[in-house]
């Protein structure tokens, strides 16, 4: 399709083209449908959650991490309380074990503890239920909602804390994130 036919089709749709005469540009501008003003939209109360088995599997995982941490820390406590001679080799081994424990905790604990089990959206607030607590957040308290492509989590930040929403587990994730972003923008205005 040549450029003249393509520009003619665009002119009919009211698109702005740099080579249009001034009169045609104002006519095209009159045909443009204005964007809907952002107004407060009432949303029905809805709960988004992950399958129950994915929630309940986190309790044994948390218990396993706690048991492993106590198992790793117990030799250090035993050595400190028995007043045995501490050699550099022993300190190196304990340091390596502590490093492995911290790395393992940083890998698993955020996804086990901070990840949302269910998110309830209403006109007044956002209710987030995690493994260990439940938070009710007013829309004005939500400071930022990010949905990075390289993470499997979306992050909802408030002034006090942040919450992780798993993209793969929460059914209706895209609708949930759009609703949270829309309500947070409305509340910030």
**The CATH homologous superfamily of the largest domain:** Pleckstrin-homology domain (PH domain)/Phosphotyrosine-binding domain (PTB)
Structural class, judged by helices and strands? alpha+beta
State the low-pLDDT regions, or none.
13-38
Taking all Cα atoms into account, the compactness measure Rg is 27 Å
Q: Outline, from the CA principal axes?
A: elongated
Q: Residue-averaged pLDDT, rounded?
A: 80
What is the spatial order of strands in the main beta sheet?
1-2-3-4
Helix-strand string: HHEHHHEEEEEEH
Q: For the record, what CATH class of the largest domain applies?
A: Mainly Beta
| Helix share, percent | 40-55%
Number of strands: 7
Approximate strand percentage: 15-25%
- Count of discrete alpha- or pi-helical segments spanning 4 or more residues: 6
Overall domain count = 2
Q: What is the CATH fold-level name of the largest domain?
A: PH-domain like
CATH architect. name of the largest domain: Roll
Largest sheet properties: 4 strands, antiparallel
Distance between the termini: 46 Å
Task: Report a brief summary of the structure.
With 189 residues, the protein is α+β, with helices and mostly antiparallel strands. The chain has helices at residues 3-13, 22-31, 52-56, 58-82, 88-114, 173-188; strands at 46-49, 118-121, 125-129, 134-138, 142-146, 153-158, 162-166. It folds into two domains: 52-113; 115-188, Pleckstrin-homology domain (PH domain)/Phosphotyrosine-binding domain (PTB) (PH-domain like), CATH 2.30.29.
